[in-house]
Amino acid sequence: MTSLLIPKVIGHRGAKAYAPENTLSSIRTAADLGVEWVEVDVKLTKDGVAIIFHDDDLDRTTNGHGPVKDADWATISELDAGSWYGDSFFGEPVPTLEQLLDTVIDLNLGLNLEIKPCAGREVETAEVALDIATRIWPDDRPPPLISSFQHVSLETAMDMMPEWPRGFLMDEHLENWQELVGYLQAATININGNTTKEELVEEYMEAHKPILAYTINQPDKARELIRWGVDGVFSDNPDVMLEELTTKH
Ligand code: G3P
Ligand code: MG
Question: Could you read off the pLDDT of 121-173 as tens digits, one per residue?
């Protein structure tokens, strides 16, 4: 397993508080803010194109409608994924995974690629994403952290690229987390920082792996989590977290 150097602050969907999430503008904004790593979500269009997108449906973050799984790339590539956020982002496209990787590499950022499959496409999404990422990602850079809430997606990533680190994502606490982290040979434990409790963080620390908490936008909450033993946070406003966690003690 590659040794991991994960920063204390990871830009969530780029820098979601300042630019439309999961777009190239959001990634560039994160880089401008001094963020070292970004997290994005990857899923498949109806015709199997890997895109950077969070929701199951197009409606919230584009001018399109309906499920992503029913829309092909020809349709999604024409959508505006920026205007919903602000007029200055008019025409911002939904990026493909290839475009995202090229941008992240150009900006010299680290990456957490979250496999976010539409229901029923857990294996296929991981296969397509890993196939592309392993082709594009330079060998001389630390590999991306591949995370997912879907255990079968992580299992697929493990089969395809065992040496790339995996992040075990939990929303609610799972009683059998230790067994799953062991089976999936996860490198990090990624938890919901807004619902977790100190005693649960203490339990996760028994695995001696970095613990990353999402989505933390309040300095007080970040400080509390770090005090409990969390190693890093995903944040929509990573500049605020950087100021809090890297310049004050
Ligand atoms: O990977 C951390 C976080 O992004 C997980 O939740 O829903 O924002 O993708 P979500
Ligand atoms: Mg995510």
Answer: 999 999 999 999 999 999 999 999 999 999 999 999 999 999 999 999 999 99
pLDDT band for 4, please (50, 70, 90 cuts). confident
Active site residues: 12, 54
Question: Cα–Cα distance between 201 and 191 in angstroms, integer?
Answer: 9
Contact by Cβ (8 Å): 59, 76: no
**What pLDDT does residue 1 have?**
43
Residue 142: exposure state from Cβ atoms within 10 A (0-12, 13-18, ≥19): middle
| 9-44+98-247, CATH topology level | TIM Barrel (3.20.20)
Ligand 2: centre distance to CA 33 (Å):
19
Ligand 1 atom 5, closest CA: 214
Cα dihedral across residues 80, 109, 39, 56: positive or negative: positive
Q: Global pTM?
A: 0.97
How many angstroms is it from 236 CA to the middle of ligand 1?
A: 11
Atom of ligand 1 nearest to the CA of 234: 2
Q: 97 near 133, Cβ under 8 Å?
A: yes
